[in-house]
Amino acid sequence: MTRTRRRRLLLVGMLLVGLGAAAALGLSAFRQNLLYFHQPSQIVAGQVPVNTRFRIGGLVQRGSVQRHGHDLTVRFAVADCDASVPVVFNGTLPDLFRAGQGIIAYGMLDKQGVFEADQVLAKHDSNYMSPDVAKALKTGQKTNCMPARMQAAR
């Protein structure tokens, strides 16, 4: 092999190693920024890791909203048809937040099973339903726990 070919081969090899390293770093950064969505029944079943950021969605359970004192800490439970998860949020809640309202909260689950939210979003579309509920309605399963306004018209 001549000296020129050896240099080219070394240059191509270094370029491939550099591209591989850049791709690995990019994929690693992308994976760290993913926010998965979980339902309360998945959390209660233990399918969600502790101390990992994710989103939880469901209905604010009636009678579960508790405000203590003059601070902004609010405790409530988010429920789906099968389970409910206690949530703690310290901050200003959206205007549409109320018992029976669909919400999505961002945060992480602590070791005691309490979801510590750092952001709460209230769903405002009265026709919204989770994909699982839509699938259950299409397959003929009963989902009586959901309010009538959140069920699909048949």
Question: What does this 3D model show about the protein?
Answer:
With 154 residues, the chain is α+β, with helices and mostly antiparallel strands. The protein has two domains: 34 residues; 115 residues, Nucleic acid-binding proteins (OB fold (Dihydrolipoamide Acetyltransferase, E2P), Beta Barrel), CATH 2.40.50.140. Helices cover 28% and strands 28% of the residues. The protein is built from three helices and seven strands. The chain has a five-stranded mixed β-barrel. The longest helix has 30 residues. It is elongated.
List keywords for this structure.
154 residues, alpha+beta, OB fold (Dihydrolipoamide Acetyltransferase, E2P), 2 domains, five-stranded mixed beta barrel, elongated
Task: Break the fold down into its secondary structure elements and pairings.
Elements: H1 3-32, E1 36-38, H2 40-44, E2 53-60, E3 66-67, E4 73-79, E5 84-90, E6 102-109, E7 115-122, H3 131-138
Parallel strand pairs: 1-2, 5-7
Antiparallel strand pairs: 2-4, 2-6, 3-4, 4-5, 6-7
Query: How many distinct beta strands?
Result: 7
Main sheet attributes: strand count, strand direction, barrel closure: 5 strands, mixed, barrel
What is the count of helical runs? 3
Strand fraction: 25-35%
Rg from Cα? 23 Å
Enumerate the strands of the largest sheet in spatial order, edge to edge or round the barrel: 2-4-5-7-6
CATH architecture label of the largest domain: Beta Barrel
Order of helices and strands: HEHEEEEEEH
Q: Which structural category fits the helices and strands?
A: alpha+beta
The count of domains is 2
Shape: elongated
CATH superfamily of the largest domain: Nucleic acid-binding proteins
Helix content: 25-40%
**What name is given to the CATH topology of the largest domain?**
OB fold (Dihydrolipoamide Acetyltransferase, E2P)
First and last CA, distance: 75 Å
